Amino acid sequence: MAAKLVVGNWKMNGSVEKNRSLVSALLQDEATAGAVVCPPCVYLSQVRDLIAGSRLRLGAQNVSRYGDGAYTGDVSAQMLAEFGCRYVIVGHSERRALFGEFDADVAQKMVVAVAAGMTPIVCVGESLQQRQQGDAVAVVLAQLQAAKELAGVEVLQASVVAYEPVWAIGTGVAATLLDVAQMHGAIKTALREWGAGDLSLLYGGSVKPEGASELMALPGVDGVLVGGASLVAAQFVAICRAAM
């Protein structure tokens, strides 16, 4: 059985001292080996140096869809790769909702990330209204279909997909195990039909240590994308242990 992938999305949190303390605590437990931490881009260099020689891996939270050039405020895929990033999150619901990113933007970011040697973590998910209307599966598969058609099957095959129900992110409300199992089953079926059945599928909706073992025991759950709990060493370590 392949190892479960645990990814910590720090979002817009951290400081030089907080990062040092958090990473130091993570490195003291072997359960974090193979896990990914995604700090804000201004701290990538610091965190890269802190995890040097360990089995913790570095990821970024976002990437420009453009290469080098006059794109003030953007960070290119080549820049992230140069700083040691192996993964990059693309299409997070907060980027879609707060910054107006569309499926085409997500697909372009996937393409540049793969070209730079990184693995995109492609986020998909539905809103509470879409779920209540019975459209959850259709919405999520449409997002994935757009990624496949706009980025290409080869790029999708080189990616990781993270299902994150928007209504369960940062709300403290988690999807039920049945919710997760049904959605992951639908996603896995579609990916197999598209020839991308081997890629990892993560769950990413308010993941906490409590219930993490049961969550990752579900068929089709290949790991987790962790938000707030990734900022608390004891919680992130507990989730990594559950992944073992």
Written overview of the protein:
- Helices cover 43% and strands 14% of the residues.
- The chain is α/β, with parallel strands linked by helices.
- Helix 1 packs parallel to helix 2 and helix 1 runs parallel beside helix 11.
- The mean pLDDT is 95.
List keywords for this structure.
single chain; globular; 244 residues; 11 helices; alpha/beta; eight-stranded parallel sheet
Instruction: Provide the residue-averaged pLDDT.
Output: 95
What is the molecular shape? globular
Distance between the termini: 11 Å
Taking all Cα atoms into account, the compactness measure Rg is: 17 Å
- For the biggest β-sheet, the strand order reads 7-6-5-4-3-2-1-8
> How many beta-strand segments?
8
Please mark out the parts with pLDDT under 50 across 5 or more consecutive residues, or reply none: none
Strand content: 5-15%
Which percent range fits the helix content?
Answer: 40-55%
Structural class: alpha/beta
